[in-house]
Amino acid sequence: MKFQAALLIVKNMERSVKFYKKVLGLRVTMDLGANVTLTGGVALQTQESWCEFISKDLQSISFGGNAAELYFEEDKFD
Fold first, then answer.
1. Nearest CA to 41 among 31, 23, 27?
2. Interior angle at CA 51, CA 46 and CA 57, nearest 5
3. Which of 14, 22, 11 is nearest to 49 (CA)?
4. Helix (H, G, I), strand (E, B), or coil: what is residue 24?
5. Is 72 domain-assigned?
6. How many domains does the chain fold into?
7. pLDDT per residue over 47-75, tens digit each?
């Protein structure tokens, strides 16, 4: 199993990308609008799209504890 990225849920994608570029010097490697992957193992996803994916409403997401996930990939998954 290979660690790919820490996925952080954000309310404002444009503002968040600017922060990670300016403060940490990260670069965007893939931009799909609601999902942005940056160098350094950081991925960002909008709160709205994440809620759709996990079938939760916006009010159920509490920033500061349950607004992130670790992303792994496995080539030989049974």
1. 27
2. 125
3. 11
4. helix
5. no
6. 1
7. 888 777 776 665 666 666 655 667 677 78
